[in-house]
Amino acid sequence: MTILLIDDHDLVLKGPHTVLGHAFPDACFLTARNGREAIEAAHGTHVDLAVLDLELPDIPGFRLIELLRGEAPGIRIVVNTVHEEIWTLRQLEQSGVDGIVFKSVNSSQLVQTVRRVLEASEQRHSGQQPQTAPGQRQPSQTASGSKTGTGCS
Asked: Which long-range contacts (CB under 8 A, 24 or more apart) does 13-18 make?
């Protein structure tokens, strides 16, 4: 499994990398510090899931979501953002992201969301109905970066 982490702030990028690395020790992690690096990473590698910030220096996050889906149609996308405004949430739902995690929550919420999104993806591929844990949202219906992890080849 390959997870692409996208954020322009090094400290913020390292947090999810560490947390998800502990939760998914066999995963391969790619990192990108801007939209261009993210597109390059998705182009050159099969990426199962991207965790991205909405505010990047070169490509707006909503545009990057579209570009990633075009580059890797089966990619699952979790947005990690500080924006909790209702209009942002509505736009994220309309964009078809698979999960939203606010940067203000506990790191375990990121792990739970990523796990739920990956499990839902596996269930879709096997023809099963995705299960939603209590209090969690159903997935939406509507690289100069580094490469780390035991799952990297």
From this structure: 15/107, 16/51, 16/80, 16/107, 16/110, 17/148
